[in-house]
Specification:
single chain; alpha/beta; Rossmann fold; 5-stranded parallel sheet
Length: 230
């Protein structure tokens, strides 16, 4: 019997591969996207395309205005998105984003009777965000057991799956390709234009471009202009 799972789906390369993995492992995926005031809102349209490609049971988008919290170049247009590697945690870090996303997924999972949540965080080729680490995922699993009726009364805890967490970007791309992910449908750029075309300069674009090169797979990303080499 297939088990239901809530899959956080941003519309980017990593979350699309995570959805494909959940489907390949026999889960019935319910896809959850979050409109949090992100400047790269084109990723939400990409999430809809990916959800359709993988025939999810249901795809819903929840609106939460993290732009009201501020503190990130992804929600505050007064802050510039870095176009070169930075020291420490970059300004593209969104305070408490993955904590919030997982909390929303947890609530929906409890209502659905699901005990599995998938998230596409990565701790190898990433920008140094603290909420992409294995320690964070393990801590949230403990919280889920304590903070929910299902965890207290149900006798079965929640499992947060992070299948990409120890993979390189190249490994993620190869895995996604094996599972039929149409990467051209995804949007990863932090400052993609309304058509979903990537800037080719931000950290996310750099990691994506280098990942395709290392994987030996042609980069299908649509750029606003010719992408830099490397």
């Amino acid at each position: 019997m297939k088990r239901n799972a809530v899959v956080l789906l941003s519309g980017g390369l990593d979350s699309a591969t995570t959805l494909a993995i959940a489907r390949s492992e026999g889960y019935e995926p319910y896809a959850l996207s979050v409109a949090y005031g992100q400047r790269h809102a084109a990723e939400l349209k990409a999430a809809g395309r990916v959800a359709k490609d993988f025939d999810v049971v249901r795809h819903q988008t929840i609106e939460v205005n993290l732009d009201a919290v501020g503190g990130s170049a992804l929600t505050d247009r007064r802050l510039a998105v870095p176009e070169a590697p930075t020291v420490g945690i970059p300004v593209t870090y969104v305070p408490a984003r993955n904590t919030l996303f997982l909390a929303l997924a947890l609530g929906w999972a409890e209502v659905l009777g699901a005990r599995d949540i998938f998230i596409g965080v990565n701790a190898v080729d990433y920008s140094g965000y603290p909420d992409c680490r294995p320690e964070f995922i393990a801590a949230f699993e403990k919280l889920a057991a304590l903070a929910t009726k299902a965890g207290v009364e149900g006798g079965e805890g929640f499992r947060v799956h992070a299948p990409l967490i120890r993979l390189s970007k190249a490994e993620i791309i190869r895995r996604g390709a094996e599972l039929g992910v149409e990467f051209a449908q995804t949007v990863s750029c932090y400052q993609a234009d309304p058509q979903g075309r990537a800037c080719g300069r931000c950290d996310s674009c750099r990691l994506r471009r280098e990942g395709f090169a290392a994987a030996g797979i042609a980069d299908p990303t649509r750029y606003q202009r010719r992408a830099p080499k490397g």
